[in-house]
Design a protein that fits this description.
alpha/beta, 273 residues, 9 strands, globular, two-stranded antiparallel sheet, five-stranded parallel β-sheet, Rossmann fold, 12% strand
């Protein structure tokens, strides 16, 4: 259906395991799509002293670590105004990312998809906000108000091996208190187990390690994902693989938002699967 008159921004969520390429993809989409800005879930962490413990570590990777009412309030503000919330002081963009893993040919293909779309003309009275977060599709009750606000839900995948290796290679993270560096064992004992617990329902038989997504569950939840995970070569976000993910994401966003803005269901399914 067409965009309600009171809605000034379309919300595109981008989630997946830590170090699956979410922030890199979010920044590329922001730079490629018209009238687009990013809101980072990581900017809604509670103070470190309020975080629970898991396996002897402060747990930054569980639902209890995020100020969900504040995130819901920010998203509501964005949808009604089309503006970045002035009460959010983003720290996420201070965190470093590696070189762009998408090739020039994939970036040009993504640009061509956007250029051939009607987004530029349709986005006269609305903007796109990309919500980037490691924990957005949790089934925890507290996430329901957030999920109800989102127009397009994208899900990235990464094998445990790649996700753990990438996370360990990171410099660390800017926080409210200063800077956080993962302690020894944190990724294996906290980050990955939390991801499995919160997202197992999206996989066949709850088997995250095998990586086969449950298409019926994805359809029910309105979540879009490319391929079936690392088994068929998608979701590890390196080189050509990341470029394919970028092109897929652009196609899905363009198609779904044209449907919302134009009220005609988009240009047809861009499955990319």
């Amino acid at each position: 259906m067409p965009l309600p008159p009171a809605q000034k921004s379309l919300l595109v969520s981008l989630s997946g395991p830590s170090s699956s390429g979410k922030t890199t993809l979010a920044r590329l989409l922001r730079d490629l799509l018209p009238n687009t800005f990013i809101l980072h879930e990581d900017d809604f962490y509670k103070p470190e002293s309020l975080l629970p413990f898991r396996s002897g570590h402060r747990d930054w990777d569980c639902p209890e670590a995020i100020d969900l009412p504040a995130l819901t309030n920010a998203l509501t503000y964005i949808k009604s105004t089309g503006k970045f919330p002035p009460f959010i002081n983003s720290k996420e963009d201070q965190n470093t990312l590696g070189a762009c893993p998408a090739s020039p040919s994939h970036i040009n293909l993504a640009k061509a998809i956007i250029a051939s779309s009607s987004l530029h003309s349709l986005l006269k009275h609305a903007k796109i906000c990309i919500l980037d977060g490691f924990l957005l599709y949790s089934q925890a009750e507290e996430f329901k108000p957030i999920l109800e606000l989102i127009d397009v839900k994208l899900f990235l995948l990464a094998s445990e091996e790649k996700a753990v290796a990438r996370r360990k290679a990171r410099d660390g993270y800017v926080t409210l208190e200063g800077f956080w560096k993962d302690p020894e064992g944190y990724v294996e004992e906290v980050v990955w187990p939390n991801y499995v617990e919160q997202h197992g329902y999206l996989f066949v038989d709850g088997d995250v390690k095998r990586g086969r997504l449950d298409r019926k569950v994805l359809e029910r939840e309105g979540i879009l994902a490319m391929g079936d995970g690392h088994e068929d070569g998608h979701g590890d976000g390196d080189g050509e693989g990341f470029g394919e993910v970028l092109v897929w994401a652009v196609g899905e966003v363009v198609n779904r938002l044209e449907g919302v803005l134009g009220g005609e269901g988009g240009r047809g399914e861009n499955e990319g699967e």
